[in-house]
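User: Hey, quick favor. My workstation is busy. Could you predict this chain's structure for me?
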Amino acid sequence: MPVVTMIGGGQLARMTHQAAIALGQRLRVLAGSVDEPAGQVTPDLVLGSHLNLDDLREAARGCHALTFDHEGVPVEHLEVLVSEGVKVLPPPTALIYAQDKLLMRRKLASLGAPIPDYVELAGADPQAQLIEFGDRHHWQIVIKAIRGGYDGRGVWLIDSREEALDVLAKAPAGTELMAEQKVTLRRELSAMVARSPFGQGAVWPVVETVQRKGQCAVVIAPAPSLDADVAAQAQRLALSLAAELGVVGVMAVELFETDNGDLLVNELAMRPHNSGHWGMDGAVTGQFEQHLRAVLDYPLGDTGTLAPITVMANILGAEHPPEMSMDERLHHLFARIPQARVHLYGKGERPDRKIGHINVLGAATDDVDDPDDVARVREIAERAAHWMSQGVWTDGWDVHGE
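Assistant: No problem, here it is.
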């Protein structure tokens, strides 16, 4: 059976390892420590750095495909591996657009994809560029680090000239920045697709993502009350981008749905993604199995839903971790909400750190276009996730009461 190497030992690699077990495969992981989420569970572990070419070579030796838990691997190292015969998927020619926001915007513009207005803050006078762009958009803009920002880091929401100039002045030396138009949103969506080397594509239902503090907190699948034509547009756009960029594996296209119903591309992620975690329990084929199928050029799996509504809620580390152990919290959760599907990552609890997620499936009679049905399923998922995070029930339930 084939061996797939995944660079990075985080929770995405851990959950890909779970899918590999079911398929009779081995997932080799390059991680920095045995304590990383995937390092705790995979028997085929290479300890090293994704920044070191020799470590990458060691992890790639004898594998059928090499893929990623994150996009932070230097493209120049990946190009060397490709020249040495390693199947790097997605290829570095595609991955660069998930690493570099400015290159992504330029490429999307050349393909005619809908994007927010943007400007690079570089050259002789980035301050002048920022002032011109900010004035043009009435200072409703976003400043982003071109590389490395994630989960709200490296992103600054701007409302005034003074605020923008302060961000520019305080940016660490060497940080490349760009500015984008702040979009008036109805909501954020995500279109997850998979593509194989053969060129087969598959797409899951478009989902709604709810962001808090710049990171995904809740996913509702499918996106409630989404116009069928808009959903089809998002799916076609995601499949088209995957083909145009040469992506192999799964890709998330994060989208803005504007107040007038238009779609704009926000970000690309060429790996399993938080917005696809719902499919572990709510889809016939989840993103982790699908990613393995894609990079090994297997026929792709059915992406249909197993329930009319699935809600995923992230478990985030609390500001002050509860005295009650995680194991005891899990005990009480199962006693009260036995239908909760819990996925813990084996990570220590730190404020706002993603340490797990919970999926809750709606009943067969639920309707994703019925706000009451969606609210009920979402409340259960968020109540369960909050309990696992804080050790407190949002409805005041006393675990030791009568």
